[in-house]
């Protein structure tokens, strides 16, 4: 069928009403967080093949299709969704997705999406300002000579980390773009660095062995004293360190590496310093919590995911650099239909991005900020960090529960200890919990031990929800112990 304005209005009205009901039901907590069914059953229930073959979607059946779709959907706005680090998006950010879906302006070239391109530039400047890498007077400044720092929004933190590693390579090995990466380059980082760092290095052709792990302590925080022995050994082996990584914060525990101490090491040795702040860079917005990132201005690059703690719908991740020239020098390509001599009215970001066709990612973050404002966003972040500490006190006070560490962010690990500390038992607890559908949590291995793991992303998650979680975990543990699991 051909799309028309009237059809859009009719179908969007039906969708909006159904989504509004879904959101209200999720936030009330009066539903399952997740009902998992086999893939084939879901496909048959949604009649996916029929729609693909016949193209029969219309205003007359869209409500039924969407209802079935939502019945097989995670409820991220549910107060008992405490699982992965995915935002319960601000409604304004959600609306931006609908706008982009209609106008469809891929904005890496300014003339293809002027408003979206400007929004991205302004929110990038806002993020640079929070890091301390913005030198202009107004966030609308587009002259990099005045802004100082630079950045780009990408489709996810993995893409952002890859871009940062490419920028580090361009600095350490300027001829790599044309001649290939030198085989003496390595990257140093905590042994618990996010897997996307190692993946990026392999994608770049350096091989996974080029990721040199730095030993962490029992809480999986990088110990700066372990940097020099590894660095000196690498120099003796004839290796060049392309970059040093620090976690701000770690995905498993939510704990921050000593950002300033690592930065001083990098400055002393003239090494590229990358802070993976995909989740925890939001602490920069809180006067109370920003000490966790003390020294971040010493870094050369920073990853910061808006789709985690900035109430922004996925995907929207920033890679920021202290010196804009380091991003400008990362990609060197020709494409006569894109890169050509022209009178430039606006700003093309395509030369700084992996993606050629890039969504208007800045609109997602802008609309969330426009809906919350800086103060609202600060209160949200501080609220989630504070309530996670309350959850720690509640869990730690119970004789049959324990936490491996005091939380520094909105991530908290714990385990049930009445029937021992067997890793497989903790995993069985989580699997049964998720199967029942009243809660959604994840797990993490910390220092070789399996823990249940919370990511408190939702402003509606309260102490009573965690008490219910503990009660359900106890009940499941009793049942599993009787079954001999």
UniProtKB/TrEMBL annotation:
Superkingdom of the source species:
Bacteria
Give the record's keywords alphabetically: Decarboxylase, Lyase, Pyridoxal phosphate
Does the keyword GTP-binding feature in the UniProt annotation? no
One GO cellular component term noted in the UniProt record for this chain = cytoplasm
Cofactor list: pyridoxal 5'-phosphate
Q: Name one GO biological process term.
A: carboxylic acid metabolic process
Q: Which InterPro entries match?
A: Aromatic_deC, PyrdxlP-dep_de-COase, PyrdxlP-dep_Trfase, PyrdxlP-dep_Trfase_major
One GO MF term on file is: carboxy-lyase activity
Q: Which residues carry this modification: N6-(pyridoxal phosphate)lysine?
A: 308
Tell me which family the UniProt entry assigns to this protein: Belongs to the group II decarboxylase family.
Q: Which PANTHER family match?
A: CYSTEINE SULFINIC ACID DECARBOXYLASE, GLUTAMATE DECARBOXYLASE-RELATED
Protein's name according to its UniProt entry: Diaminobutyrate decarboxylase
- What organism does the record attribute this protein to? Leptobacterium flavescens
């Amino acid at each position: 069928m051909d799309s028309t304005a009237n059809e859009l209005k009719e179908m969007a009205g039906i969708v909006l009403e159904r989504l509004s009901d879904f959101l209200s039901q999720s936030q009330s907590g009066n539903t399952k967080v997740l009902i998992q069914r086999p893939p084939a059953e879901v496909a048959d229930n949604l009649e996916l093949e029929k729609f693909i073959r016949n193209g029969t979607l219309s205003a007359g059946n869209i409500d039924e299709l969407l209802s079935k779709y939502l019945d097989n959907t995670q409820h991220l706005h549910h107060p008992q969704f405490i699982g992965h680090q995915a935002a319960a998006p601000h409604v304004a950010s959600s609306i931006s997705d609908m706008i982009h879906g209609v106008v469809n302006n891929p904005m890496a070239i300014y003339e293809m999406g002027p408003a979206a391109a400007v929004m991205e530039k302004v929110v990038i400047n806002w993020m640079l300002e929070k890091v301390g890498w913005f030198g202009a007077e107004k966030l609308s400044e587009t002259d990099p000579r005045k802004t100082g720092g630079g950045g780009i929004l990408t489709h996810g933190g993995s893409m952002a980390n890859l871009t940062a590693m490419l920028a580090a390579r361009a600095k350490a090995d300027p001829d790599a773009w044309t001649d290939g990466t030198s085989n003496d380059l390595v990257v140093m980082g905590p042994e618990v660095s996010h897997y996307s760092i190692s993946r990026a290095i392999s994608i770049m052709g350096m091989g996974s062995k080029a990721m040199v792990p730095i030993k962490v302590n029992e809480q999986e925080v990088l110990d700066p004293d372990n940097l020099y022995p590894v660095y000196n050994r690498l120099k003796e082996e004839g290796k060049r360190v392309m970059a040093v990584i620090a976690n701000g914060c770690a995905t498993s525990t939510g704990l921050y590496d000593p950002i300033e101490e690592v930065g001083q090491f990098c400055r002393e040795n003239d090494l590229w310093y990358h802070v993976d702040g995909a989740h925890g860079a939001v602490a920069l917005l809180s006067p109370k919590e920003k000490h966790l990132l003390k020294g971040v201005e010493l870094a050369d690059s920073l990853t910061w995911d808006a789709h985690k703690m900035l109430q922004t719908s996925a995907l929207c991740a920033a890679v920021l650099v202290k010196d804009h020239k380091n991003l400008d020098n990362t990609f060197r390509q020709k494409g006569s239909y894109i890169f050509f001599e022209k009178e430039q009215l606006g700003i093309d970001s395509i030369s700084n991005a992996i993606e050629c066709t890039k969504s208007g990612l800045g609109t997602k973050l802008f609309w969330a900020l426009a809906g919350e404002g800086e103060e609202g966003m600060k209160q949200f972040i501080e609220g989630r960090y504070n309530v996670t500490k309350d959850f720690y006190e509640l869990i730690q006070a119970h004789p049959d529960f324990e936490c491996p560490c005091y939380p520094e962010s909105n991530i908290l690990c714990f385990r049930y200890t009445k029937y021992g500390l067997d890793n497989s038992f903790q995993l069985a607890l989580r699997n049964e919990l998720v199967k029942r559908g009243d809660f959604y949590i994840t797990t993490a291995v910390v220092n070789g031990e399996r823990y249940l793991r919370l990511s408190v992303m939702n402003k509606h998650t309260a102490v009573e929800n965690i008490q219910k979680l503990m009660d359900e975990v106890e009940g499941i543990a009793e049942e599993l112990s009787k079954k001999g699991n």
